[in-house]
Amino acid sequence: ILCDFSSRNPFNCLEPLVKTHISKKPLSTLVVHPSSSDPTRYGVVKFNQLANGNGFFSGEIKALVEKPSLEIAKSYRSNGYNYIIAGYYAFNSKIFNYIETTPVGAKNEVQITDAISLGLAHGEKVWGVVHAKKESNVVSPCEYWDVGIPEDFIAASKRILNLKAEQLESLDE
Fold it and tell me: What is the pLDDT along the chain (173 residues), one digit of tens a residue?
């Protein structure tokens, strides 16, 4: 779950994803979250260059890896963070060609990150939008609550239920 409680609409964090995907026209655009905690249970990206523009940070992705070792994750760090894949994607229709040719991985599943990596290997462009506030040229992470395991889902659900009623009411305006 992505949110920014300093914003008028704290759950409107996907707008930069859509704007970037429309303007850059890549194979895929993904939301990434800057994290200084252990990234080994997530996918992480490595940027060619991270730019500060249009009110948010974004950049072309050079590489991505699912559930990296600590050593690989360290080599992907930038600006003091690993940029973990937050699970929000936009794709163009060419992604289906890569999904069809992506080898089956663990648990007999095709991973979307493997399909995106295959696209990168074939010269496709992939962009990342950083879920962070733009404070001059400093990355300041916004709220991100992983819900990939039951304990995290329960914790995120409790946080949402505890939001003040006026915060939720302002979303309807």
Answer: 555 545 555 556 678 889 999 999 999 999 999 988 899 988 999 999 888 777 788 999 999 998 999 999 999 998 889 999 988 899 999 999 999 999 998 778 888 999 999 999 999 999 999 887 666 666 665 566 666 667 877 877 777 777 654 565 665 55
pTM comes to: 0.79
Task: Give Cβ neighbours of residue 2 (< 8 Å, ≥ 6 apart).
Answer: 11, 13, 14, 31, 33, 86, 88, 131, 142, 143, 144
Q: Is 106 helix (H, G, I), strand (E, B) or coil?
A: helix
